[in-house]
Every structure is written in C-alpha cells, then in structure tokens.
Amino acid sequence: MEGEFQSGNSIKPLNPKSVASVVRYGKLRFPLSHRATGHSLVYNQLYLFEGLQNYSSGIIHHVRLTGTFE
C-alpha cells in the first residue's frame, strides 16, 4: 500500500518524490489562502544478519508553515 511502512526480507522502499509535499492553510471559515511546500523522505534500515528484518518507513513530509494569521 502506498505510503505505509514495510518490514521483512524483501522490501521495496517508496520513492519520496512520487507525491508532493504541499500544505494549504488559512483561518477558520476563510479560504485556504496560504500555500507551503517542503520535501519528503523515506528512512531505511537494512540488515546483513540472518534473522533481522529490514525496515522502510512510509513517506514522511516536512513542510514549514510561515506567515501570520491576522
């Protein structure tokens, strides 16, 4: 499933560039007039030892919101 973590012996890490990191925001009951973009990452832990399961995170988005809500 897209975006979910994976663990096991044969994992296929997700491509963090496959989805945009965009947040639209604004005041309550007003249009979402602000837009912020950021970047995304996938964390992987691959083990060489038998018995340990490899791990790949889901896509993690990092977006910084700026501006004021006046």
TrEMBL record:
InterPro entries: Purple_acid_Pase-like_N
GO molecular function, one term: metal ion binding
Alphabetical list of Gene3D superfamilies matching this protein: Purple acid phosphatase-like, N-terminal (2.60.40.380)
Protein known as: Uncharacterized protein
Gene source species: Dillenia turbinata
